[in-house]
Amino acid sequence: MIDNFDPKNIINSKFKNQKINYDRVLQELVNNWKKSNFRPKIMIHSCCAPCSTVVLEYLSSVADVTIYFSNSNIHPKEEYEYRKKVQKDFIDDFNIKTGSNVSFMADEYNPNSFFQITKGLENEKEGGARCHLCYRMRLDRSALKASELNFDYFASALTLSPHKNSEIINEVGFGIEKELEVTSLYYLPSDFKKNNGYLRSIEMCKEYDIYRQCYCGCVFGAKQQGIDFKEVIARVRSQLKEE
Ligand code: SF4
After folding, report:
1. Is 126 in the pocket of ligand 1 (CB under 6 A)?
2. Ligand 1 pocket test target in 83, 123, 172, 218 with most atoms within 8 Å of CB
3. Rounded Cα gap, residues 81 and 99, in angstroms
4. What is the pLDDT of residues 190-229, one digit of tens each?
5. Tens-place pLDDT, residues 50-65
6. Which CATH architecture has domain 3-242?
7. Which atom of ligand 1 approaches the CA of 217 most closely?
8. Backbone angles phi, psi at 41, to 5 degrees
């Protein structure tokens, strides 16, 4: 790929010695694609349908987007399966409504991998060290899949959430890109919550009638929030029955 398709070059030329505005980096990059009539293939890690709404609205017209559902952190399995289904259903609806061609892929569910990497960090507060490893686990998987399938970029929809620090997610993404050493695959930085992105995601959830979960995903964060897993399982079962 040519130099102005590498987000790091935009960061180095426009944000030297200053705080990086990742949303602006993404906007500049999209402009560069448009100027060159380049339509990249992007593998976007998504944790749930709500976080993918604005991401698809923003990127699906300028890129060939695949949503990668890789979330072995989610507990219990019933909730994982339900979020996966809601994600896939939303993409189907979005494609019909907008004439887009967004693809969907799901990773295997392997909760032990999450428990192994977060061992000893069970009591960390949400947003702390456990979460950083959790972002890394999911972005790692997405980058590997993107590299295997010759994508141009890998990215994360996690930067939409106001509960998540976009700077850390982007640092994790660039770190993975460096370690992978695949010269044709770039990490695509973002800050999707900017420009009222989060508010727009709430609107889109209403428009598409999307289920919005009440906890981030793992058993540890949910317990800190006082989530009752019996209620979670009962709700998932009744929602599946209604559909
Ligand atoms: S709270 Fe969310 S981001 Fe943090 S470890 Fe749990 S699932 Fe992952």
Report:
1. yes
2. 218
3. 26
4. 999 999 999 999 999 999 999 999 999 999 999 999 999 9
5. 999 999 999 999 999 9
6. 3-Layer(aba) Sandwich (3.40)
7. 7
8. -100, 120
Q: Give the nearest ligand 1 atom to 74 CA.
A: 7
**Residue 218 near ligand 1, beta carbon < 6 Å:** yes
Write out the E strands in the chain: 41-45, 64-69, 103-106, 153-156, 186-187
Cα 124 to averaged position of ligand 1 atoms, centre (Å): 10
Q: Whose CA is nearest to atom 5 of ligand 1?
A: 131
Residue 108 has pLDDT above 80, yes or no: yes
Predicted structure pTM score: 0.96
DSSP 122-142: TTPPTTSHHHHHHHHHHHHHH
Both tokens of 46, joined, read 């998504």
Could you tell me the residue ranges of all domains in the chain? 3-242
